[in-house]
Write a structure and sequence with these properties.
- This protein is α/β, with parallel strands linked by helices.
- It has helices at about 20-60, 70-75, 185-190, 230-270, 300-310; strands at about 70, 90-95, 100-105, 115-125, 130-135, 155-165, 175-180, 200-210.
- Helix content is about 35%, strand content about 20%.
- The chain has a five-stranded mixed beta barrel.
- Strand 4 (about 115-125) and strand 5 form a beta hairpin.
Length: about 325
């Protein structure tokens, strides 16, 4: 008579049937898809980390740079700022065109909804540079700020940090407002449209640092760009851990099912532990501890017993 071992797959009832080949194939296909998805997400987070790191390096290298003349970095109308020169400071002399002011909407500053004040600046040589003079608080329920502080009149010397022209937005905006700091859209949103600046504007804009003379009423100055690298790198490794965990989980499941099969086969054979009489305490075939309580055989004993049972058939 076969004796059921404590802790065996049949303890308390019949063992669960083994998975079929088809079930294992489906399981491994699912794990493969999971791993591929995790690897794709990890790669995406890594690419974002690399791009973010590069942007931070540019800010740290250029934000506190000494101002240079505008024409040194933007030699002619239509010129764009080199990626390595973004955030560099330049000085330029000329005059504002306050009647052609446009407002950038939906661009938060430090988590606060705001409008950015964008004013074309005509240089002494007749070229046009769009200047982001700063931001105004977004009045709840309003389509725009109650009033916009005017820039200094007459001849003005300004210092700005150069920024790359943004991609044109496809979203609509009220008259005199834009959804992106795209030079052509900003000029077109101003009074009279942007035809007056055709062939004169740079494909870049400037974030205001200072004005001389200073205006009577100032807007809020733009804050220093955020240089926090974020969590992209940690997310990269988290997705890799998920991929490894998926494979490891199936391997553990496979080993556990194999172990249960060994126990079932062992219970169905002439059990080497079911010998007559009382075994010597601590002996190889002992099924009880010194205190008489049942003892579960070790994995090595189970394997040896299975091999021995197969040889005696």
């Amino acid at each position: 008579m076969s004796t059921t071992q404590p802790g065996s797959a049949q303890a308390g009832g019949a063992a669960a049937p083994a998975r079929t080949v088809r079930q294992w194939v489906v399981l491994w296909v699912g794990v493969l898809l999971l791993v591929l998805g995790c690897l794709a997400a990890s790669r995406w987070q890594w690419e974002r980390h690399v791009a973010r790191t590069a942007a931070i390096e540019v800010v740290e290298a250029n934000y506190a740079s000494e101002p240079v003349p505008l024409e040194e970095l933007l030699p002619a109308p239509g010129a764009g700022v080199d990626p390595d020169d973004v955030w560099r400071s330049v000085t330029v002399h000329g005059r504002y065109e306050p009647d052609r002011t446009a407002l950038l909407r939906n661009r938060p500053v430090n988590g606060q909804a705001s409008f950015h004040v964008l004013v074309p600046f005509v240089t002494d040589v007749g070229t046009v540079l769009v200047v982001n003079r700063g931001w105004l608080q977004y009045d709840a329920g309003s389509a725009g700020p109650g009033s916009v502080p005017a820039p200094p009149t007459g001849d003005v010397t300004i210092t700005v940090r150069l920024r790359a022209d943004e991609v044109a937005s496809t979203r609509g905006a009220p008259q005199g407002q834009v959804q992106a700091i795209n030079v052509q859209q900003v000029l077109a949103a101003g009074s009279g449209g942007g035809a007056w600046a055709d062939g004169l504007a740079y494909d870049a804009y400037g974030s205001l640092v200072s004005e001389d003379p200073r205006p009577v009423e100032q807007v809020f100055r733009l804050p220093k760009p955020d240089t926090d690298p974020g969590s992209h790198l940690s997310y990269t490794f988290q997705w890799l851990v998920f991929a490894v965990g998926g494979v490891a989980g199936v391997i553990i499941l496979l080993r556990r099912e194999r172990h249960e099969q060994v126990l079932v086969e062992l219970d169905g054979a002439e059990h080497p532990f079911a010998t007559a009489g009382t075994p010597e305490p601590g002996g190889r075939g002992a099924r009880t501890r010194r205190d008489g309580s049942p003892r579960t055989p070790s994995a090595e004993e189970i394997e040896d017993a299975l091999i021995e049972a197969q040889h005696t058939r």
